[in-house]
Write a structure and sequence with these properties.
With 202 residues, this protein is mainly alpha-helical. It has one domain. Helix content is 65%, strand content 0%. It contains seven helices and no strands. It has helices spanning 27-39, 41-58, 67-88, 96-99, 104-137, 157-185, 190-201. α1 runs antiparallel to α3, α2 (41-58) runs antiparallel to α3 and α5 (104-137) packs antiparallel against α6 (157-185). The protein is globular. The relative contact order is 0.14.
Length: 202
């Protein structure tokens, strides 16, 4: 175990150390990472199915009805869930030139601002995705029906994808909230602040 991940005996309220790579900050993050690693195998399945379609289409002149739409749906679903994985593992885009040059206390407040803006964004997206998902599964006359692609195969992938987006945005909003609570509750210790000042004076 590396020194940066060893227990430090920090009291409640101290700044929580960064977790090991691809572990996650909260139980929700860790569940997302676990599920994400399992679902990543679907990319291999997408490649195999796409190869199958190529062989059928160009060698036997017998294209399938289902491969293109299935692969598109699977890839879009993984793309949406990838956003949750990126936030869970802290792999989202960050201007590290600024972030790494400030003290732990300032980094903490930068994260707080990030989480607040993320909550605002995800709340607006949640509002929009709810109506999008609702219209995809409920007919204008109030009956239950799934929106379909309108192709010859006509699968309900559009409805399923819109539901996936709504569920993902719900989880994303909860992630931002949990990360905000974590950073508001945990403050840099005096030792961390003094160590940071010492590094800047070197």
């Amino acid at each position: 175990m590396s020194a940066e991940h060893e227990p430090t005996g920090q009291a409640p309220g101290d700044l929580v150390p960064e977790p090991p790579e691809d572990v996650g900050f909260t139980p929700l993050d860790r569940a997302i990472v676990w599920l994400g690693k399992k679902l990543s195998l679907v990319f291999a399945l997408i490649a195999v199915v796409s190869l199958y379609e190529i062989v059928r289409r160009y060698l036997f002149n017998s294209p399938t009805l289902w491969v293109h739409e299935t692969v598109t749906f699977a890839g879009a679903t993984l793309f949406v869930l990838g956003g949750l994985y990126a936030l869970a593992t802290d792999k989202h885009v960050r201007i590290v030139l600024v972030y790494d040059s400030v003290s732990p206390a300032v980094q903490r407040w930068l994260r707080v601002v990030h989480h607040l803006l993320g909550l605002l964004f995800s709340s607006l997206l949640l509002y929009a995705s709810w109506f999008m998902a609702q219209s995809a599964v409920v007919a204008p006359w109030g009956g239950w029906r799934l929106e379909t692609s309108g192709s010859a195969w006509n699968p309900p992938f559009p409805a399923l994808l819109k539901v996936v987006i709504f569920v993902a945005v719900v989880i994303l909003t909860l992630q931002f909230l949990l990360h905000l609570i974590r950073d508001l509750r945990n403050k840099p210790t005096p030792n961390q602040v003094s160590d940071d000042k010492g590094e800047r004076n070197v």
